[in-house]
Specification:
4 copies of one chain form a homotetramer.
Chain A: H1 9-23, E1 27-31, H2 35-39, H3 41-49, E2 54-60, H4 63-68, H5 81-87, E3 92-96, H6 102-116, E4 120-125, H7 137-140, H8 153-169, E5 173-177, H9 179-183, H10 187-197, E6 201-203, E7 218-221, H11 229-237, E8 240-244, E9 265-269, E10 272-275, E11 278-281, H12 285-294, H13 323-335, E12 340-344, H14 348-352, E13 364-366, H15 376-387, E14 390-396, H16 397-403, E15 418-423, H17 447-453, E16 457-461, H18 464-476, E17 481-486, H19 494-507
Parallel strand pairs in A: 1-2, 2-4, 3-4, 5-6, 5-8, 6-7, 8-9, 12-13, 12-14, 14-15, 15-17, 16-17
Antiparallel strand pairs in A: 9-10, 10-11
Chain lengths: ~500, ~500, ~500, ~500
């Protein structure tokens, strides 16, 4: 196990999330009681919300101090306050204060983390640290495997039969792949199922990357009403949409419910399968997919064309660069190269990233639902540790000012992301909808210089050609690289523009 | 009311705390629901713990979304989770979701913030934003005053009588001034009382600054067993120690209870007065001090000598600078200048700052008890907004890497702190007690360059003379100034050295 | 509205439950704060558990007393303790302490009581009693109707279609009627549906009476493995069992899950319909039944024979009477008479009552699941108030000693139940399974004399003939009547005997 | 240990309370989960409220059933609901479900019961019943003693010194003895202290019996403003009132705070001592009294005259008897006889009982504060089991109809109380203040006949002479005796009359 330190704590929290998110393994986050614990509430809430399995370990005051009845160093309302706070953002939380039950308590939290793919919390009493604990035989002899949720096999079978019948009756079925397929390590099975069915496969926003983007059946990201027209039309035409592992919430980048008619859709998620207006409970995605792989599904042979939201790139390399140019250039850059992953920060880059195409089994990560600013850089560092893939980070200047300086830790862990820092001089995504523009301005930082000072390489680019050249050079640089891309303050990514238009429309 | 923005949210939280801490007015912090609210848990817990009156206002999902039953953008376990979290770190929290009671609910939270001098929380439902609310006459006609806690006048009188008798019997009384005197705006009365009694006055760590440091009766900071010897001896000799507003917790920089024998001491704090082994409840510090000001106290005329923990400064300006040199130089700098305040970061600088002497009614701020890293720079920005005094910030490199970049916001708010950044290349305070030194190293940042890039001035100094010169120059610079002081990795402040020695001793 | 008083409070609680249970209207129970409220916890928990809609109104201390901070007359741990206790046994509970929201709070509790068919709780602050309250227009103009739960019409439709297909494929379908059909006033529709389907209809224990016992399709009570053999066999043969309103818990008089294979059964209860291994949520029983009434169900014409657990009655009127004789005699008595209802106490009589056949639309009541002793007499009084039917109460001596004396209130409310008090001198039902028989003995009471003293008529019978004669005479007596039937200490009802045998078998 | 059964559960609850209340030992109450547990909420709340140490043991569903997820026999909202309910009315509650911690959990509950002198609750999982548990050495080797609360010896000493100084300055001191003296088994020490001080000793209502009523210094019961005039005057004259173990709540039979000026009074209760306007915390009554016994208290020699609220008894034995006659006769009866205790029911008899004088170390019991109806008869049975003293129960007809029939259990436990049943035909105490008199009427019961039927002896008396004769005869009867005393419906006890007058006055 590798120990890494970050500063401040939110960076550590995002890094652990990035590690777990990219590897589907449990990441472990150690914090001090009080200021440390309170400072990771936000990243842990993000992991909870997007179902990333991490284990938070915190110290805690011992019995002696509790009995003293005085306030303890670093305390909130009560000594148990930090525990209560973590109960709100974890699937299991325990205070370890009894050597007789410590082993089974810890075991139970770890198992819950795996079962629910959400954070767990352990607070170890200061005076437990040196104590010997009772470890029952079943823990001592544990073989290291962690159980997933169980299905009722009769329900699985009926659900698969029901699905097969409907699928085989359908003339234009399609599949939307959700994040659970990735969390439960089902990517291989999903691809196999997609091929067996021969239908177009899309992903949701949160699940971008859960289906190989360069697979011939991959059609792109479904973002509901603001999807690329071919996707919207294909879904409208579908007489059966199979949603695999799609959380209801992550469909539209908003909180509106999806518009798929239920009689034409199937939803398999959160250990149940909804088919038309009825439900199979106690059916895990894992078991459902495996049952479908064995079912006599009729094979389609639909030809699928990948689509995104990018207009054709205008010609000319000396042009002032725009966000959409950056997306074109990154796509070109990635097309010929293996070993890269992409991490998109929250904000405009979250939307922009939807038009990135990572091939060659490269990972794609973003906080597609919780969308906390600050995830990008530290999350990418954690992800590189876990996967070895080199991250290409899409990040705005606002988010970079939050946690971007964590990049300074990259050299000593031999990490070398390429940060594409889109500098529009402020909180650009709010500019179209805010009256007081002055509240959105951000101070200017010498990003490229900073990169150099921190042991990386810095570039400052303003034209399409400069970016292309910088990327090409970065590919050869062994250290981390930061490319500051100066764009117009009002320039936004294609999806953001559609999203804002849709939101404003919705409110009127 | 001035609106300021910071990035990320923890900076905003510390800035509001600094404002309220320096001015004794209520600071207001606005955050977005979810990532925003979760990200200020740490600074708000610090305000709670050290009794700083701030009001947190968050948005919240409306009824429509709650009824949908789906997960909402930015959510933790339940829609009420953020509310539950803030219940743990505020003295009053309300969800505003009923136009009939909104006005009285908000009124109640604000009154509680003032009464307890702790944070309050208001979460405003999205669909309440445009609603007209009922405002009862008593709120409409409110004169803007907020009530402090009430005393029982008969208890106040008996406590003052009891105190007077004991004080007048004592031959060597002394006074220790605690943070409540400052929170409840009693500095003037405390000075008057100190002069009336004519006894030596010390402060606790958390209350440093609550008694004028250049007052002839001020003796310095009492840090329990590691106090400067004259202070320790004077307290040991005392036959009566009057503790005014001293929270039990902040005596020893640790969690040990103070060693003052109760039969020789009086504690007035948290609305009660303990005299010898008995207690007067329902006696506020405010009313107790006022009663003592009218009581027939015998006047002493003890000559008091100020003392700190600094050894005499070795001669020579070209020497490699040490932490103690910095303290000597800052003290000299401050001696002749008005309009400065000092803000000490957590870590070694929290201890170092105890040897700083701010005169001329300058404010001194530090998180003396909760001690979260990251308070210094943003806290100082908020404090300058509130008081107009120019902050001199003592800050280590570790803490600066957490929230120091917030200094980039200084220019646009016309703020001009002087940051003395003590760069020892890592988490120096843990070096004497940690095995894995590699976990304590920090990457190097080009601090002085950064300062220039952010619109301030940067200095890099290595000798005593260079620091003196840089400070003198900074005094004349209208913008903010950052002076990076390079010190030996194992150099620590005098109090830190004593503290670590004492802690290690305690555990063995 | 009629005000009645009982003594002590448990009697009042059971009476209100009996009223609501028999009429399907909301019963109202008023108690004093403290001893009064605490004393009805048991009957209210019973109403909660068996879904009887009652409203509990309690007083509560006012603000003045709360502020005093002293313990209040009749208090538990905290002033809010009684409220917390009732939160555990009601579907909605409110403290009425704000005149601005009082009307909507009360309205919300009443609506919840109706929606969930469970108790609600209102605690009215003492100082609210004389206050004028704001009543919003929608409450003022309320038309008196209370809403049932809503269905999703598309789910109803699909569920009905699914059901119809399966029903029409089935060759030997059967129906089991559960208590929800009665709570939601669907008896008429259920009978119509039963006739339309032409299949045998049984009830569960808790629902006995929900299907007319003298209807030609009524087959009797299904008690799972200890049912009368024809019922057990018919269910085993069924290729589809339609369970309408059957709570899972009340099938077997125990806690074992029912043994109906799910692929051959349909369960419509608690606003959902389970068909085979899938589920339709948001489908109320009411809407489901109405949809089935319109569906093209194939009609069966199965001839159904009513059956119970009674062996043929041995000849001879002068014989020492047994429990089974009593059941034979009561059945004969009821056969020719209208206007009677039957109420069975908990204990042996709960099981015995399953062999009673009430015809002529007479009500049958028992606490078939919660099974608290003491329900019988007061419950019957409440039920007679509500329905006007004369109760025939089956009650053991143990239960009678608990709340039987409430019968003394009958005369002044012009109530005239006939109590058949089966006196076996103790807690007979435990005799076969208890070592310490002495703990099961009960003192003897002069029941018949007591009845006379309380304004009723008392009989003491020992033979079959005597009981028959006493019943015949009781029929003519306008006042209440108590018939003490002396039976052997070890005599038990047929179902009890089977139940004990099955329980003992299960544990071994 | 003796096992007793009662019916229904409330009787068992009151009996256990009576046992513990009379003996100051822990009483144990076993109930079944659900109906049993819910049915003892009221008596247990009474024990909690009046600080009677009892241990409630309930069964509970096992893991198997919990996992089944179905509703369990006898359940409320959740399986944990009964546990939550008991948390509100006990000082410690645990669910026993882990064999590793079962022993220490049970040990902790028992210790808490003793420490707080309040009920504790243990719920034993069904599947724990046969399990072997770990018992740590300290539990195995426990010597059977249970600790009282600890004092801070320096506080005890200062409090005693402070008290002594004030007592020795006082010219007319007096003492009021409260219930804690009895609960903590300090009666002997209190008498010794009273004799050492030589001052008049009164008790509060709840503590009647805690100071021997026939002691020459005993002055009677202080009932605040409605006390007998000599008591009221003596307290008004007092320049120091020493309140020993007096709960603030039980002074005035109401909720008003006592009118003793604090500068002239001392209150030792609930582990603290209030002297004038200051407080000594962490001083137990036990340690305080022991310190006073050693302190140099000046001895007074005040001559004390016992007084009550009874007007002189009018002459004539053939008169229609009144409540006050009954009190006179009972006092005469008790004067010459040893071995009797008195138990007063709630209602008019709670007030009436204050004029009873039990001598010869006889116990006196009543629920003086919680005042639940129904305590009398079962409480007396428990008390006789515990003490062997024969109870003389004062009971109204209303309360007797609640739990009076429990007397039928007396013969088999060889208990022989004398019940004086004051029959005024209804809820007499409310008659002066209620408009709807019809709601207060109660049916008539043949009480004397019932007593005979239940194995006791019954008397019906109407004149003074008849009562005297019946009592004399009862004294000789070995079985229990019930004497029904028929009084006028509007006749009330002297204290009740004063109380109602005072209450009505207070509200106007």
């Amino acid at each position: 196990m590798q120990v890494m330190t970050f500063s401040p704590e939110p960076g550590a929290g995002f890094a652990v999330d990035g590690y777990a998110r990219a590897t589907c393994k449990i990441g472990v986050l150690c914090v001090t009681y009080g200021a440390g614990g309170h400072n990771v509430v936000n990243p842990v809430a993000g992991s909870f919300s997007e179902r990333v399995p991490i284990l938070v370990i915190s110290g805690g005051p011992g019995e002696e101090k509790r009995k003293l009845g005085v306030l303890i160093h670093h305390q909130a309302k009560e000594i148990e306050s930090q525990f209560h706070i973590f109960q709100e953002i974890t699937c299991a939380a325990k205070i370890i204060n009894d050597p007789r039950t410590a082993a089974t308590d810890i075991d139970a939290v770890v198992r819950a983390v795996w079962l629910h793919q959400q954070p767990g919390y352990i607070e170890i009493h200061q005076d437990m640290v040196e104590r010997e604990i009772e470890v029952p035989r079943e823990v001592l002899e544990w073989d290291g495997t962690l159980a997933h949720a169980h299905s009722d096999p009769r329900k699985v079978e009926e659900a698969a039969r029901d699905t097969t019948a409907r699928f085989n009756r359908a003339r234009k079925p399609a599949a939307i792949i959700g994040i659970e397929t990735f969390r439960y390590k089902l990517t291989r099975e999903i691809v196999e199922l997609g091929e067996k069915m021969g239908v177009p496969c899309m992903t949701t926003v949160l699940a971008k990357g859960a289906f190989p983007m360069d697979h011939p059946q991959y059609m792109g990201v479904n973002i509901g009403p603001i999807s690329p027209p071919p996707i919207r039309e294909r879904v409208d035409e579908a007489d059966l949409v199979l949603n695999l592992g799609t959380l209801l919430t992550d469909m539209n980048l908003g909180s509106r419910l999806p518009h798929l008619p239920r009689e034409k859709s199937i939803w398999a998620v959160q250990n149940k399968v909804d088919i038309s207006y009825h439900t199979y409970t106690e059916v895990t995605l894992r078991d459902y997919v495996k049952a479908l792989l064995k079912a006599p599904l009729r094979q389609h042979h639909e030809k699928v064309e990948y689509c995104d939201n990018l207009a054709p790139q205008p010609p000319g390399d000396a042009r002032q660069i725009q966000v959409s140019d950056m997306l074109w250039e990154v796509n070109k850059f990635l097309q010929g190269r293996k070993g890269y992953m992409v991490v998109a920060e929250s904000g405009d880059m979250l939307f922009a990233g939807l038009d990135i195409k990572v091939g060659h089994c490269g990972t794609y990560l973003a906080q597609g639902y919780y969308a906390s600013m600050g995830f990008g850089v530290p999350g990418a560092l954690g992800a590189q540790i876990g996967t070895g893939q080199r991250p290409l980070i899409l990040c705005g200047d606002g988010a970079f000012q939050m946690t971007g300086p964590e990049i300074c830790h990259a050299p000593r862990y031999k990490l070398n992301p390429i940060v594409i820092l889109m500098n529009n001089g402020g909180w650009g995504i709010f500019r179209p909808v805010t009256e007081r523009q002055d509240l959105l301005a951000l101070p200017s930082w010498p990003y490229a210089q900073l990169a150099e000072a921190w042991g990386g390489r810095g570039f400052h680019v303003q034209t399409v050609g400069e970016l292309r050249a910088a990327l090409a050079e970065a590919d050869q640089i062994p250290s981390f690289v930061l490319i500051e891309v100066r764009v117009d303050p009002y320039d936004l990514s294609p999806v953001t523009i559609k999203y804002i238009k849709a939101s404003v429309g919705q409110e009127q």
